[in-house]
Write a structure and sequence with these properties.
Layout lengths: L31 E10 L3 H13 L5 E4 L15 E2 L7 H7 L4 H21 L11 E5 L2 H16 L4 E5 H7 L7 E5 L3 E2 L2 H14 L3 E3 L6 E5 L1 E6 L2 E10 L16 E10 L4 H7 L6 E4 L5 E5 L5 E5 L18 H14 L8 E11 L6 E5 L4 E5 L8 H14 L9 H4 L11 H18 L4 H9 L6
Parallel strand pairs: 1-2, 1-11, 2-8, 4-13, 11-18
Antiparallel strand pairs: 3-7, 4-6, 5-6, 9-10, 10-11, 12-15, 12-16, 13-14, 14-15, 17-18
Helix pairs in contact: 1-6, 1-9
Bound molecules: flavin-adenine dinucleotide.
The site of flavin-adenine dinucleotide (FAD) has 42 residues, from helix 1, strand 12 and strand 16.
Protein backbone atom coordinates (compact mmCIF):
# COMPACT_ATOMS: atom_id res chain seq x y z
CA UNK A 1 0.00 0.00 0.00
CA UNK A 2 1.21 3.41 -0.74
CA UNK A 3 1.68 6.98 0.39
CA UNK A 4 3.60 9.84 -1.08
CA UNK A 5 6.43 9.57 1.46
CA UNK A 6 6.62 5.80 1.20
CA UNK A 7 5.24 5.31 4.69
CA UNK A 8 2.12 3.14 4.30
CA UNK A 9 0.62 4.50 7.52
CA UNK A 10 1.38 8.18 6.94
CA UNK A 11 -2.23 9.01 6.09
CA UNK A 12 -3.92 6.55 8.45
CA UNK A 13 -6.31 8.16 10.93
CA UNK A 14 -6.10 6.56 14.38
CA UNK A 15 -9.74 5.46 14.66
CA UNK A 16 -12.06 2.66 13.50
CA UNK A 17 -13.31 3.21 9.97
CA UNK A 18 -16.82 2.20 11.04
CA UNK A 19 -17.37 5.51 12.80
CA UNK A 20 -16.49 7.58 9.72
CA UNK A 21 -19.28 10.06 9.01
CA UNK A 22 -21.26 9.05 12.09
CA UNK A 23 -22.18 11.74 14.58
CA UNK A 24 -22.27 10.67 18.20
CA UNK A 25 -24.99 12.21 20.33
CA UNK A 26 -23.88 13.97 23.52
CA UNK A 27 -23.77 11.50 26.42
CA UNK A 28 -26.39 11.64 29.15
CA UNK A 29 -24.58 10.40 32.23
CA UNK A 30 -26.45 9.00 35.18
CA UNK A 31 -26.94 11.77 37.74
CA UNK A 32 -28.33 11.11 41.22
CA UNK A 33 -30.03 8.05 42.63
CA UNK A 34 -32.56 5.88 40.84
CA UNK A 35 -33.92 2.35 40.85
CA UNK A 36 -34.30 -0.36 38.22
CA UNK A 37 -35.45 -3.92 37.82
CA UNK A 38 -32.38 -4.69 35.74
CA UNK A 39 -29.10 -2.84 35.29
CA UNK A 40 -26.96 -3.86 32.34
CA UNK A 41 -23.32 -2.84 32.71
CA UNK A 42 -21.75 -2.32 29.27
CA UNK A 43 -23.24 -0.79 26.12
CA UNK A 44 -21.87 -3.23 23.57
CA UNK A 45 -23.68 -5.96 21.69
CA UNK A 46 -24.08 -8.20 24.75
CA UNK A 47 -25.51 -5.44 26.92
CA UNK A 48 -27.85 -4.13 24.24
CA UNK A 49 -29.17 -7.59 23.32
CA UNK A 50 -29.75 -8.19 27.03
CA UNK A 51 -31.79 -4.98 27.33
CA UNK A 52 -33.85 -5.85 24.23
CA UNK A 53 -34.55 -9.45 25.20
CA UNK A 54 -35.35 -8.47 28.81
CA UNK A 55 -37.91 -5.93 27.58
CA UNK A 56 -39.39 -8.31 25.02
CA UNK A 57 -39.84 -10.89 27.79
CA UNK A 58 -41.39 -8.41 30.20
CA UNK A 59 -42.45 -5.11 28.62
CA UNK A 60 -42.57 -2.37 31.18
CA UNK A 61 -39.59 -3.70 33.13
CA UNK A 62 -37.30 -0.85 34.19
CA UNK A 63 -34.02 -1.53 32.39
CA UNK A 64 -31.03 0.80 32.72
CA UNK A 65 -27.86 0.38 30.63
CA UNK A 66 -24.74 1.94 32.16
CA UNK A 67 -21.86 2.43 29.72
CA UNK A 68 -18.52 3.87 30.81
CA UNK A 69 -17.70 5.47 27.44
CA UNK A 70 -20.20 5.53 24.61
CA UNK A 71 -22.32 2.79 23.08
CA UNK A 72 -20.01 0.73 20.86
CA UNK A 73 -16.84 2.11 22.46
CA UNK A 74 -15.52 -1.41 23.04
CA UNK A 75 -15.10 -4.34 20.68
CA UNK A 76 -18.64 -3.97 19.31
CA UNK A 77 -17.70 -0.71 17.62
CA UNK A 78 -14.31 -1.74 16.29
CA UNK A 79 -14.56 -5.33 15.03
CA UNK A 80 -14.34 -6.93 11.59
CA UNK A 81 -18.08 -7.50 11.33
CA UNK A 82 -17.87 -11.22 10.55
CA UNK A 83 -21.04 -12.91 11.76
CA UNK A 84 -20.63 -16.56 12.58
CA UNK A 85 -23.14 -19.21 13.54
CA UNK A 86 -20.52 -20.84 15.75
CA UNK A 87 -20.78 -20.74 19.53
CA UNK A 88 -17.68 -22.91 19.85
CA UNK A 89 -15.10 -20.67 18.19
CA UNK A 90 -15.36 -22.66 14.99
CA UNK A 91 -16.33 -26.20 14.16
CA UNK A 92 -12.86 -27.73 14.55
CA UNK A 93 -12.52 -26.31 18.05
CA UNK A 94 -16.05 -27.51 18.80
CA UNK A 95 -15.14 -31.07 17.80
CA UNK A 96 -12.01 -30.95 19.94
CA UNK A 97 -13.65 -29.44 23.01
CA UNK A 98 -17.33 -30.44 23.02
CA UNK A 99 -17.46 -33.62 20.90
CA UNK A 100 -20.59 -35.12 22.41
CA UNK A 101 -22.60 -31.89 22.60
CA UNK A 102 -21.50 -30.43 19.29
CA UNK A 103 -24.73 -31.26 17.47
CA UNK A 104 -26.75 -29.29 20.02
CA UNK A 105 -24.26 -26.40 20.03
CA UNK A 106 -24.37 -26.20 16.23
CA UNK A 107 -28.18 -26.18 16.36
CA UNK A 108 -28.25 -23.42 19.00
CA UNK A 109 -25.70 -21.36 17.09
CA UNK A 110 -27.64 -21.55 13.84
CA UNK A 111 -30.88 -20.71 15.59
CA UNK A 112 -29.15 -17.70 17.19
CA UNK A 113 -27.96 -16.46 13.80
CA UNK A 114 -31.38 -16.98 12.20
CA UNK A 115 -33.01 -14.99 14.99
CA UNK A 116 -30.51 -12.15 14.58
CA UNK A 117 -31.24 -12.11 10.85
CA UNK A 118 -35.00 -11.96 11.54
CA UNK A 119 -34.57 -9.25 14.18
CA UNK A 120 -32.44 -7.03 11.95
CA UNK A 121 -35.05 -7.35 9.17
CA UNK A 122 -38.07 -6.83 11.46
CA UNK A 123 -36.53 -3.76 13.11
CA UNK A 124 -35.30 -2.45 9.76
CA UNK A 125 -31.75 -2.02 11.05
CA UNK A 126 -29.76 -0.78 8.09
CA UNK A 127 -26.49 -2.56 8.87
CA UNK A 128 -25.59 -4.25 5.59
CA UNK A 129 -26.27 -7.62 7.28
CA UNK A 130 -25.54 -10.24 4.63
CA UNK A 131 -25.42 -14.00 5.07
CA UNK A 132 -22.86 -14.36 2.29
CA UNK A 133 -20.68 -17.02 3.95
CA UNK A 134 -16.92 -16.73 3.80
CA UNK A 135 -13.80 -18.14 2.19
CA UNK A 136 -10.94 -19.55 4.22
CA UNK A 137 -7.66 -19.58 2.32
CA UNK A 138 -4.53 -21.69 2.69
CA UNK A 139 -1.34 -19.66 2.27
CA UNK A 140 1.11 -22.36 3.42
CA UNK A 141 1.40 -25.85 1.93
CA UNK A 142 0.44 -27.69 5.12
CA UNK A 143 -2.78 -25.68 5.38
CA UNK A 144 -4.07 -27.15 2.11
CA UNK A 145 -4.69 -30.56 3.67
CA UNK A 146 -6.20 -28.90 6.75
CA UNK A 147 -8.74 -27.17 4.51
CA UNK A 148 -9.69 -30.46 2.86
CA UNK A 149 -10.32 -31.98 6.30
CA UNK A 150 -12.34 -28.96 7.35
CA UNK A 151 -14.46 -29.22 4.21
CA UNK A 152 -15.36 -32.79 5.18
CA UNK A 153 -16.16 -31.76 8.75
CA UNK A 154 -18.36 -28.90 7.64
CA UNK A 155 -20.28 -31.10 5.24
CA UNK A 156 -20.79 -33.66 8.04
CA UNK A 157 -22.47 -30.87 10.00
CA UNK A 158 -24.73 -29.84 7.17
CA UNK A 159 -22.77 -26.87 5.83
CA UNK A 160 -22.46 -26.31 2.14
CA UNK A 161 -18.72 -26.27 1.83
CA UNK A 162 -16.69 -26.29 -1.35
CA UNK A 163 -12.98 -27.00 -1.50
CA UNK A 164 -11.26 -24.81 -4.11
CA UNK A 165 -7.92 -25.38 -5.79
CA UNK A 166 -5.46 -22.49 -6.08
CA UNK A 167 -6.77 -21.70 -9.57
CA UNK A 168 -10.38 -21.83 -8.45
CA UNK A 169 -9.92 -19.64 -5.39
CA UNK A 170 -7.81 -17.15 -7.36
CA UNK A 171 -10.47 -16.98 -10.05
CA UNK A 172 -12.78 -15.73 -7.30
CA UNK A 173 -10.41 -13.51 -5.29
CA UNK A 174 -6.97 -13.10 -6.79
CA UNK A 175 -4.01 -13.21 -4.44
CA UNK A 176 -0.67 -14.76 -5.33
CA UNK A 177 -0.48 -16.06 -1.74
CA UNK A 178 -3.45 -18.45 -2.10
CA UNK A 179 -2.74 -22.15 -2.40
CA UNK A 180 -6.30 -23.39 -1.85
CA UNK A 181 -9.62 -22.19 -0.48
CA UNK A 182 -12.75 -23.31 1.27
CA UNK A 183 -15.97 -21.52 0.40
CA UNK A 184 -18.74 -21.88 2.94
CA UNK A 185 -22.21 -20.46 2.78
CA UNK A 186 -22.87 -20.19 6.53
CA UNK A 187 -22.39 -16.87 8.35
CA UNK A 188 -21.70 -13.53 6.75
CA UNK A 189 -20.92 -9.89 7.32
CA UNK A 190 -22.38 -6.84 9.00
CA UNK A 191 -21.47 -3.22 9.61
CA UNK A 192 -20.88 -3.66 13.35
CA UNK A 193 -21.39 -0.04 14.35
CA UNK A 194 -24.66 0.20 12.41
CA UNK A 195 -25.77 -3.00 14.14
CA UNK A 196 -24.74 -1.77 17.60
CA UNK A 197 -26.42 1.62 17.16
CA UNK A 198 -29.48 -0.10 15.67
CA UNK A 199 -29.71 -2.31 18.76
CA UNK A 200 -29.34 0.73 21.00
CA UNK A 201 -32.29 2.38 19.24
CA UNK A 202 -34.32 -0.83 19.45
CA UNK A 203 -33.59 -1.05 23.19
CA UNK A 204 -34.59 2.59 23.74
CA UNK A 205 -37.81 2.12 21.72
CA UNK A 206 -38.69 -0.70 24.11
CA UNK A 207 -38.17 1.57 27.11
CA UNK A 208 -34.55 1.00 28.12
CA UNK A 209 -32.70 4.00 29.54
CA UNK A 210 -29.11 4.24 28.31
CA UNK A 211 -26.60 6.33 30.24
CA UNK A 212 -23.25 6.86 28.53
CA UNK A 213 -20.19 8.30 30.30
CA UNK A 214 -21.36 6.33 33.34
CA UNK A 215 -18.72 3.85 34.46
CA UNK A 216 -19.83 1.54 37.24
CA UNK A 217 -17.06 1.83 39.81
CA UNK A 218 -18.38 -0.78 42.24
CA UNK A 219 -21.39 -2.83 43.20
CA UNK A 220 -22.67 -2.93 46.79
CA UNK A 221 -25.05 -5.53 48.08
CA UNK A 222 -27.74 -4.80 50.66
CA UNK A 223 -30.69 -6.94 49.68
CA UNK A 224 -30.65 -5.43 46.20
CA UNK A 225 -27.52 -4.36 44.30
CA UNK A 226 -26.33 -0.77 44.21
CA UNK A 227 -24.37 0.13 41.06
CA UNK A 228 -22.29 3.21 41.82
CA UNK A 229 -21.05 5.60 39.12
CA UNK A 230 -19.09 8.85 39.62
CA UNK A 231 -22.24 10.99 39.59
CA UNK A 232 -25.02 8.64 40.57
CA UNK A 233 -26.20 5.21 41.64
CA UNK A 234 -28.85 2.71 40.57
CA UNK A 235 -30.42 0.33 43.05
CA UNK A 236 -31.28 -2.74 41.02
CA UNK A 237 -32.97 -6.07 41.67
CA UNK A 238 -30.69 -7.65 39.10
CA UNK A 239 -27.48 -6.78 37.27
CA UNK A 240 -26.03 -8.23 34.08
CA UNK A 241 -22.32 -7.67 33.55
CA UNK A 242 -21.51 -7.32 29.84
CA UNK A 243 -18.08 -5.74 30.20
CA UNK A 244 -16.16 -8.00 27.80
CA UNK A 245 -12.38 -7.53 28.08
CA UNK A 246 -12.53 -4.47 30.33
CA UNK A 247 -11.42 -4.62 33.95
CA UNK A 248 -14.13 -6.76 35.53
CA UNK A 249 -16.21 -5.63 38.48
CA UNK A 250 -16.00 -9.12 39.94
CA UNK A 251 -12.57 -10.18 41.04
CA UNK A 252 -13.13 -13.81 40.08
CA UNK A 253 -13.40 -12.91 36.38
CA UNK A 254 -9.81 -11.73 36.29
CA UNK A 255 -8.61 -15.32 36.26
CA UNK A 256 -10.90 -16.34 33.38
CA UNK A 257 -10.59 -13.47 30.92
CA UNK A 258 -7.53 -11.67 29.64
CA UNK A 259 -7.54 -8.69 27.28
CA UNK A 260 -5.75 -9.26 23.98
CA UNK A 261 -5.27 -6.37 21.58
CA UNK A 262 -6.23 -7.11 17.99
CA UNK A 263 -5.13 -4.67 15.26
CA UNK A 264 -6.93 -3.52 12.13
CA UNK A 265 -6.34 -1.36 9.04
CA UNK A 266 -8.73 0.02 6.43
CA UNK A 267 -7.98 1.41 3.00
CA UNK A 268 -9.61 4.17 1.04
CA UNK A 269 -12.63 3.08 -1.07
CA UNK A 270 -11.50 1.10 -4.09
CA UNK A 271 -12.57 2.20 -7.56
CA UNK A 272 -14.31 -0.26 -9.87
CA UNK A 273 -11.05 -0.60 -11.80
CA UNK A 274 -9.05 -1.35 -8.64
CA UNK A 275 -11.61 -3.93 -7.56
CA UNK A 276 -11.51 -5.55 -10.99
CA UNK A 277 -7.81 -6.27 -10.41
CA UNK A 278 -8.68 -8.69 -7.61
CA UNK A 279 -12.19 -9.91 -8.50
CA UNK A 280 -14.01 -10.60 -5.23
CA UNK A 281 -17.41 -10.31 -6.90
CA UNK A 282 -19.29 -12.27 -4.21
CA UNK A 283 -18.10 -9.76 -1.64
CA UNK A 284 -17.69 -12.38 1.09
CA UNK A 285 -15.34 -12.23 4.06
CA UNK A 286 -11.97 -13.96 3.94
CA UNK A 287 -9.72 -15.43 6.59
CA UNK A 288 -6.53 -17.40 6.33
CA UNK A 289 -6.14 -20.76 7.95
CA UNK A 290 -3.25 -20.36 10.41
CA UNK A 291 -3.33 -20.02 14.19
CA UNK A 292 -2.28 -16.42 13.68
CA UNK A 293 -4.80 -15.49 11.04
CA UNK A 294 -5.85 -12.43 9.09
CA UNK A 295 -9.47 -11.56 8.49
CA UNK A 296 -10.43 -9.21 5.70
CA UNK A 297 -13.47 -7.96 3.91
CA UNK A 298 -14.90 -5.15 1.87
CA UNK A 299 -16.86 -2.48 3.69
CA UNK A 300 -20.17 -1.20 2.28
CA UNK A 301 -18.24 1.66 0.61
CA UNK A 302 -15.69 -0.79 -0.87
CA UNK A 303 -12.74 -0.18 1.36
CA UNK A 304 -10.71 -3.20 2.40
CA UNK A 305 -10.69 -3.83 6.14
CA UNK A 306 -7.69 -5.98 7.01
CA UNK A 307 -7.09 -7.16 10.59
CA UNK A 308 -5.82 -9.81 12.93
CA UNK A 309 -2.60 -11.82 13.03
CA UNK A 310 -0.68 -9.96 15.71
CA UNK A 311 -2.70 -10.38 18.92
CA UNK A 312 -0.85 -8.72 21.80
CA UNK A 313 -1.21 -9.35 25.51
CA UNK A 314 0.39 -6.76 27.79
CA UNK A 315 1.75 -7.61 31.22
CA UNK A 316 -0.81 -7.15 34.01
CA UNK A 317 -3.88 -7.17 31.68
CA UNK A 318 -2.78 -3.87 30.09
CA UNK A 319 -5.88 -2.15 28.81
CA UNK A 320 -5.23 1.60 28.65
CA UNK A 321 -6.44 3.30 25.49
CA UNK A 322 -2.89 4.30 24.43
CA UNK A 323 -2.36 0.67 23.42
CA UNK A 324 -4.72 1.17 20.49
CA UNK A 325 -1.88 2.40 18.31
CA UNK A 326 0.92 -0.15 18.18
CA UNK A 327 3.16 0.83 15.33
CA UNK A 328 4.86 -2.53 14.91
CA UNK A 329 1.55 -4.41 14.64
CA UNK A 330 0.03 -1.94 12.19
CA UNK A 331 3.17 -1.95 10.02
CA UNK A 332 3.20 -5.74 9.97
CA UNK A 333 -0.43 -5.72 8.84
CA UNK A 334 0.35 -3.13 6.15
CA UNK A 335 3.10 -5.40 4.83
CA UNK A 336 0.82 -8.44 4.85
CA UNK A 337 -1.91 -6.51 3.04
CA UNK A 338 0.59 -5.53 0.38
CA UNK A 339 1.77 -9.14 0.04
CA UNK A 340 -1.80 -10.40 -0.19
CA UNK A 341 -2.83 -7.93 -2.88
CA UNK A 342 0.29 -6.57 -4.64
CA UNK A 343 -2.05 -5.42 -7.45
CA UNK A 344 -3.33 -2.75 -5.07
CA UNK A 345 -0.03 -1.05 -4.30
CA UNK A 346 -1.56 2.31 -5.25
CA UNK A 347 -4.34 2.07 -2.66
CA UNK A 348 -3.93 4.24 0.44
CA UNK A 349 -4.41 3.03 4.01
CA UNK A 350 -6.70 5.53 5.69
CA UNK A 351 -7.49 4.05 9.13
CA UNK A 352 -5.67 2.12 11.82
CA UNK A 353 -7.03 0.98 15.15
CA UNK A 354 -7.13 -1.85 17.64
CA UNK A 355 -9.56 -3.29 20.13
CA UNK A 356 -9.54 -5.59 23.10
CA UNK A 357 -10.62 -9.17 22.72
CA UNK A 358 -11.84 -11.02 25.81
CA UNK A 359 -9.86 -14.23 25.62
CA UNK A 360 -10.58 -17.28 27.72
CA UNK A 361 -8.41 -20.39 27.84
CA UNK A 362 -11.24 -22.29 26.09
CA UNK A 363 -12.07 -19.59 23.47
CA UNK A 364 -15.73 -19.61 24.59
CA UNK A 365 -17.44 -17.35 27.13
CA UNK A 366 -17.64 -17.79 30.84
CA UNK A 367 -21.07 -17.48 32.45
CA UNK A 368 -22.16 -17.42 36.06
CA UNK A 369 -23.80 -15.57 38.91
CA UNK A 370 -22.64 -13.71 42.00
CA UNK A 371 -24.12 -11.79 44.92
CA UNK A 372 -26.75 -14.38 45.74
CA UNK A 373 -27.84 -14.78 42.13
CA UNK A 374 -28.65 -11.08 41.64
CA UNK A 375 -25.64 -10.51 39.39
CA UNK A 376 -24.88 -12.55 36.26
CA UNK A 377 -22.03 -12.28 33.77
CA UNK A 378 -21.47 -13.22 30.14
CA UNK A 379 -17.93 -12.44 28.97
CA UNK A 380 -15.12 -14.12 27.01
CA UNK A 381 -16.16 -14.54 23.37
CA UNK A 382 -12.49 -14.62 22.33
CA UNK A 383 -12.87 -12.67 19.11
CA UNK A 384 -16.04 -14.32 17.86
CA UNK A 385 -18.80 -12.46 19.62
CA UNK A 386 -20.63 -10.39 17.00
CA UNK A 387 -23.36 -13.03 16.79
CA UNK A 388 -22.57 -15.10 19.90
CA UNK A 389 -23.10 -12.02 22.10
CA UNK A 390 -26.85 -12.45 21.62
CA UNK A 391 -26.62 -16.03 22.87
CA UNK A 392 -24.48 -14.78 25.77
CA UNK A 393 -27.02 -12.11 26.68
CA UNK A 394 -29.81 -14.67 26.68
CA UNK A 395 -27.81 -17.02 28.91
CA UNK A 396 -27.16 -14.13 31.31
CA UNK A 397 -30.90 -13.42 31.54
CA UNK A 398 -31.65 -17.15 31.99
CA UNK A 399 -29.22 -17.25 34.91
CA UNK A 400 -30.74 -14.16 36.53
CA UNK A 401 -34.22 -15.65 36.18
CA UNK A 402 -32.95 -18.92 37.67
CA UNK A 403 -34.54 -20.85 34.80
CA UNK A 404 -33.23 -23.94 33.12
CA UNK A 405 -33.31 -23.64 29.35
CA UNK A 406 -31.80 -25.38 26.35
CA UNK A 407 -29.03 -22.77 26.61
CA UNK A 408 -28.17 -23.30 30.26
CA UNK A 409 -28.24 -27.08 29.74
CA UNK A 410 -25.11 -27.19 27.59
CA UNK A 411 -21.76 -27.81 29.32
CA UNK A 412 -20.29 -24.87 27.39
CA UNK A 413 -22.48 -22.73 29.66
CA UNK A 414 -22.40 -24.86 32.81
CA UNK A 415 -18.66 -25.52 32.95
CA UNK A 416 -16.06 -22.82 33.37
CA UNK A 417 -12.85 -22.63 31.38
CA UNK A 418 -9.55 -23.40 33.09
CA UNK A 419 -8.34 -20.17 34.76
CA UNK A 420 -5.24 -18.40 33.47
CA UNK A 421 -2.34 -18.22 35.94
CA UNK A 422 -1.93 -14.87 37.72
CA UNK A 423 0.98 -12.52 36.97
CA UNK A 424 3.93 -12.70 36.93
CA UNK A 425 3.29 -16.10 35.30
CA UNK A 426 0.50 -15.00 32.97
CA UNK A 427 2.56 -12.90 30.58
CA UNK A 428 5.37 -15.45 30.02
CA UNK A 429 2.78 -18.24 29.68
CA UNK A 430 1.05 -16.29 26.90
CA UNK A 431 4.35 -15.52 25.15
CA UNK A 432 5.50 -19.14 25.22
CA UNK A 433 2.14 -20.30 23.86
CA UNK A 434 2.15 -17.67 21.12
CA UNK A 435 5.64 -18.74 20.07
CA UNK A 436 4.49 -22.37 19.91
CA UNK A 437 1.48 -21.39 17.77
CA UNK A 438 3.69 -19.37 15.42
CA UNK A 439 6.03 -22.36 15.13
CA UNK A 440 3.11 -24.59 14.17
CA UNK A 441 2.10 -22.04 11.54
CA UNK A 442 5.61 -22.12 10.07
CA UNK A 443 6.18 -25.85 10.19
CA UNK A 444 2.76 -27.46 10.18
CA UNK A 445 3.76 -29.48 13.26
CA UNK A 446 1.90 -29.17 16.54
CA UNK A 447 4.64 -29.21 19.14
CA UNK A 448 4.64 -30.97 22.50
CA UNK A 449 3.53 -27.92 24.50
CA UNK A 450 0.41 -27.40 22.37
CA UNK A 451 -0.42 -31.11 22.39
CA UNK A 452 -0.18 -31.15 26.16
CA UNK A 453 -2.38 -28.07 26.40
CA UNK A 454 -4.89 -29.74 24.05
CA UNK A 455 -5.15 -32.64 26.49
CA UNK A 456 -6.13 -30.22 29.27
CA UNK A 457 -8.50 -28.27 27.02
CA UNK A 458 -6.57 -25.00 27.24
CA UNK A 459 -5.09 -22.68 24.66
CA UNK A 460 -4.61 -19.12 23.47
CA UNK A 461 -6.49 -17.52 20.62
CA UNK A 462 -7.98 -14.23 19.45
C1 LIG B 1 -10.47 -5.69 16.52
C2 LIG B 1 -11.55 -6.69 16.78
C3 LIG B 1 -12.09 -7.42 15.73
C4 LIG B 1 -13.11 -8.34 15.96
N1 LIG B 1 -13.69 -8.96 14.89
C5 LIG B 1 -14.75 -9.79 15.10
C6 LIG B 1 -15.44 -10.35 14.02
O1 LIG B 1 -15.17 -10.05 12.85
N2 LIG B 1 -16.46 -11.22 14.29
C7 LIG B 1 -16.82 -11.55 15.57
O2 LIG B 1 -17.73 -12.36 15.76
N3 LIG B 1 -16.20 -10.96 16.62
C8 LIG B 1 -15.21 -10.09 16.42
N4 LIG B 1 -14.61 -9.47 17.48
C9 LIG B 1 -15.17 -9.71 18.82
C10 LIG B 1 -16.49 -8.99 19.03
O3 LIG B 1 -16.34 -7.64 18.63
C11 LIG B 1 -16.86 -9.06 20.52
O4 LIG B 1 -16.90 -10.42 20.92
C12 LIG B 1 -18.21 -8.45 20.81
O5 LIG B 1 -18.31 -7.15 20.28
C13 LIG B 1 -18.39 -8.41 22.32
O6 LIG B 1 -19.45 -7.54 22.65
P1 LIG B 1 -19.60 -7.11 24.15
O7 LIG B 1 -20.81 -6.28 24.23
O8 LIG B 1 -19.56 -8.32 25.03
O9 LIG B 1 -18.30 -6.27 24.48
P2 LIG B 1 -17.91 -4.74 24.15
O10 LIG B 1 -18.40 -4.32 22.85
O11 LIG B 1 -16.45 -4.60 24.42
O12 LIG B 1 -18.71 -3.94 25.23
C14 LIG B 1 -18.35 -3.88 26.58
C15 LIG B 1 -18.71 -2.49 27.03
O13 LIG B 1 -18.63 -2.43 28.45
C16 LIG B 1 -18.21 -1.11 28.80
N5 LIG B 1 -17.72 -1.21 30.17
C17 LIG B 1 -16.67 -1.91 30.63
N6 LIG B 1 -16.55 -1.78 31.96
C18 LIG B 1 -17.57 -0.98 32.36
C19 LIG B 1 -17.99 -0.47 33.62
N7 LIG B 1 -17.33 -0.77 34.76
N8 LIG B 1 -19.07 0.34 33.68
C20 LIG B 1 -19.76 0.65 32.54
N9 LIG B 1 -19.40 0.19 31.31
C21 LIG B 1 -18.32 -0.62 31.23
C22 LIG B 1 -17.15 -0.79 27.76
O14 LIG B 1 -16.94 0.59 27.65
C23 LIG B 1 -17.75 -1.42 26.51
O15 LIG B 1 -18.47 -0.49 25.73
C24 LIG B 1 -13.58 -8.56 17.29
C25 LIG B 1 -13.04 -7.83 18.34
C26 LIG B 1 -12.05 -6.89 18.10
C27 LIG B 1 -11.50 -6.11 19.25
Amino acid sequence: MTSGAGDPLAEAAPRPVWWEGRERTAPEPLVGATTADLVVVGGGLTGLWAAIVALDEAPGRRVVVLESGHVGAGASGRNGGFVSDSLTHGLSHGVATWPSELGELVRLGRQNLREIDDFVADEKIDADFRLCGKTTVATRPHEVEALRRLAGLQREHGEESTYLTAEQVRADVDSPTYLAGLRTTVGGLVDPVALTLGLRDAAVRRGAVVHEASPVMRMERDGTVLCVTPSGAVRADQVLLATNAFKPLLRRLRSYVLPVWDHVLATEPLSAEQLARIGWRENQGLTDAGNQFHYYRRTPDDRILFGGYDAIYYFGNGSDAAKEQRDASHRLLARHLRETFPQLSDVRITHRWAGMIDTTSRFTPVFGTAMGGRVAYAVGYTGLGVAASRFGARVGLDLLAGRETERTAVPLVRRRPVPFPPEPLRWPAVQVTRAALAREDRTGRRGRLLRTMDRFGVGFNS
